[in-house]
Write a structure and sequence with these properties.
single chain, 187 residues, alpha/beta, Rossmann fold, 13% strand, globular
Length: 187
């Protein structure tokens, strides 16, 4: 079992600590996440953003009161940081394969994401995270509220479910799926 205890286990006694990790661009849906966060007091939900701002970042910086910001970190540093958060929010509008979602789930973080990411294939809504429509701040806020409303045992089960779901994305499982796919092509 993984120790998730860089943050207090008891969600009811502290803010929900959300993480966004990745490039800070409109394509990643960051503006919708920031809009969703506006409705939560910091005593209830904290948003931490790790990544590099692309472009001038004026709109992003204008809403700096809504989040804590850290410039991009190395992969190994990010792995260490996952234990400080309760969930990853990755509301990408357009995404190829967002490795950050699988990594976060592997660290036991439920993921709030859109159908336009690879994580949507992994997420069983309400079991190991939530899938929300793209460009929908209200749906993101609702998913955050659902996560915040979980009892501690429900939340810990969701974390464990996220961790177990990420195991589908080992190199061995990828090799097995690829072999199966190639076999279907050669029949």
């Amino acid at each position: 079992a993984i120790a998730y205890n860089a943050v207090s286990k008891n969600l009811s006694s502290r803010p929900l600590r959300l993480l966004y990790a990745g490039k800070i661009t409109q394509r990643k849906g960051i503006s919708y996440l920031l809009e969703a966060i506006k409705g939560f007091p910091k005593s209830s939900v904290e948003l931490h953003i790790i990544g590099n701002v692309h472009g001038d970042g004026k709109a992003f910086k204008k809403l700096a009161h809504l989040y804590e910001y850290q410039k991009g970190v190395t992969q190994s540093e990010l792995f260490k940081l996952y234990s400080h958060y309760d969930a990853l929010v990755f509301p990408s509008v357009l995404e190829g394969f967002g490795l950050v979602t699988v990594e976060a789930m592997g660290a036991g973080l439920p993921v709030i994401t859109t159908p336009n990411t690879n994580a949507a294939e992994l997420i069983a809504d309400g079991v190991n995270g939530y899938v929300v429509p793209i460009r929908d701040s209200n749906a993101i806020a609702e998913a955050i509220h659902k996560l915040r409303s979980l009892t501690d045992p429900e939340f810990h089960q969701m974390r464990e479910n996220a961790r177990l779901s990420a195991l589908q994305f080992t190199w061995d499982s990828y090799k097995e799926r690829l072999n199966t796919f190639v076999q279907t092509l050669t029949r």
